[in-house]
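Pair request: fold both.
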Amino acid sequence: MANKADKVKARLPRGLVDRHAADIRATDKMLAAIREVYERYGFDPVETPMIEYTDALGKFLPDQDRPNEGVFSLQDDDEQWLSLRYDLTAPLARHVAENFNEIQLPYRTYRAGYVFRNEKPGPGRFRQFMQFDADTVGAPSVAADAEMCMMMADVMEALGIKRGDYIVRVNNRKVLDGVMQAIGVTDEGQKLTILRALDKFDKFGLDGVVQLLSVKGRTDESGDHTKGAGLNDAQIMRVINTLGWGEPGSGASSKASDSLTVANLQDRLAEYGVSTEGADELATINSLVRASGYDERRIRIDPSVVRGLEYYTGPVFEVELTAEIPNEKGEIVRFGSVGGGGRYDGLVSRFRGQPVPATGFSIGVSRLMTALKNLGKLGESDVLAPVLVTVMDGDMEAMGKYQDFTQKLRAAGIRAEMYQGNWKKFGNQLKYADRRGAPLAIIQGADERANSEVQIKDLIEGKRLSEEIESNEEWRSSRPAQVTVKEAELVKTVKRMLEQQAADRAREA
């Protein structure tokens, strides 16, 4: 026995979770639905390792002010710095650059995997989580961005999220850059504060954003104060007029049609003497998605969308769940964004020294799965618990029979296991079967073995009948949901009984 001093305390590191069968199967089911959409769009899978040279990740870590901040790193025996990947996009850029001459452009690929953030964990904020990305590298046209938006919408509906319960919102970093130029802001820190304020439009409304843009800042109901971006009234009006948000204090927070929004962006940016390229690209995206049958309930042009400040170079988009969804406590919450992306023409170029256009998006698998679970869209796992072959005798002949039954069931495609615990207390075997949710139990004692027979006990039907039968005498005389068949009939009978259980479940559903 180990000395107490030698015992290691079993503890899970903060920001990490253990995953159990139900969650793993639900995730697999969700990933399969997403994968089917990606494949339908002509994307192929690729896999990159979880560890990259740290300089390959570089400064292109979304929403990070300093290079390599937030990554888990170590040195190898060559004193080279390695890091766990922060996202799936930087490794893809390295892969494309390293294999550029062999890759067929445009390179259309998808991949799922865990990413790691060396950040302070908190509610809903983990140090390891899964993403599922799709990217097109080598396509300069915004038609590739429009396709990403349509694919995001199709993914949501493939997962059972109905139209009206999600929205894909689209903006362009060039529009935001034009706004900064129009109001004469060049300081990167002030730009960041302004963009963060614009990103709060859906949360705080127009008046709240105006306060965040101002010199005074915003104080919420609890008394917490957020420092303002320091813009004067004229600058604030230029921002609001360009983005088409109406007048402060008017309550005009409803969005105009996308065509009007784009036309306003083009007119205002031209009026202020800055580039309209971003607005023109939004006009093209708007035209392409409408021509393909995606209306404003599915994809919207929204100038408030702000994503990774150094990462993206053109169109940016995110998919948001708009349905009222209960959280784990039963409280109705707005889940918000469950995925997003955009054009990142500079990422592959870091390695190549030449322009390489790219666009893509990433789905936050864990966050989306939580939302689907709370919406009731994942349902019960369709993987049945195994049929349990019980053990009545421990001699070699009997054990050989039990193992043979188990293997015959498995060979027929039926999940099965032979009881591996202390077989001498038969009641414990049935308790184990009940805890496992086993649909059937296979029983063969000495008498049945002498007659080449087995008993098959329908545990689900037996449990139902036991709740209806009141007396022990009635129980003994009825022998509920239990049949005796010849060994040769075992597999066929098990299949029939499982099919009957499946029919009962379908009827009850």
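--- second member of the pair ---
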Amino acid sequence: MSIDSLKSRIPDFAKDVRLNLSTLGSDETLTPQQKYGLMVACGIASRNPAVRAALEAEAAQHLTPAALSAAKSAAAIMGMNNVYYRFTHLVSNDEYRTLPAKLRMNVIGNPGVDKVDFELWSLAVSAINGCGMCMDSHEAVLKKAEVPTEVVQTAVRFAAIIQSAAIALEAAEAA
């Protein structure tokens, strides 16, 4: 499966989603590794098997095995961190923020790819998962690395498009 086959499954009520999916491959704001890593990480975070499979298939021909693994790691580690840190941020009891997380997250420090790429992927997955604390943290790292605002915005736009594809497919399947 590919992005084209995924687009063909998007129903007419979501034609804007189809059009937005068309823009992913041609985006020139990101490096190829950033772009295809976003597809993998966000595809996994969408929790939709068809979206995940299509985007991984599309990305596989553009990513090294190390980059593919790192993109999957970003989705997995953010799945954990987003739950934990969203809880500590949203719960009224401030005491939880003072406790050590006691979560292993070594991959963040040594992802096996450029740190900026991993941070972009982590930011996008955090946007899908709705963790404001994690989004702030990853955006700050990217700004410190002097990543342009347009690159950060593009990563989040990829997350939005990919998540909307998952929602459109689920709605079509439920009908």
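Observation on the second member. The longest helix spans residues 65-90.
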